[in-house]
Design brief:
alpha/beta
Length: 136
Amino acid sequence: MVGTDGSAGSAAAIDLAFKEAGLRGAALRVLYVWQPPLLGNAGEHPVPEEYQRLVAEAASGRGAAHPDVPVHHEAVPGHPVRVLTDASADALGLIVGTRGLGGFTGMVLGSVSQGVLYHARCPVITVPHAGDDERS
C-alpha cells in the first residue's frame, strides 16, 4: 500500500511501491486521504470525484513499467495518519513520502510519515524526495 498527496515526495513513494509490489507478486493499493471541511462551505473544497481523479493521476503512467501489478486507487475521507494506519492492518507494507522540511531544522519527516511510523500495523518505508537537501 502507498499513501499519496500528489506531491513529488509521494511520486517517489509510488515508484518504489510499484517496484516492491512487482517483486512480491502483490497488488498495489494507492490511497489519497482527504479531510472533509470542519467548518465553512463544502463547496469551497474539491468534491470527492476530484480526489478520485487526483489519485488515479498520481499513479498513472507508472503501471506501464509494471503491467503485472494490479492497482486499486482510492480516495478516502479522514485524517491521513488514522486512515493509513487503519488500512495498514491488511497490508504487506506501507510506503509514504517525506516532506518534513517545513521550518523546523532537524525535522526530516512530515507529520503523516512520522505518525504512520508510530502507529502502522505493518512494516513502513519512508521515501525522501530526491530534491530534498541532505542534512546532518
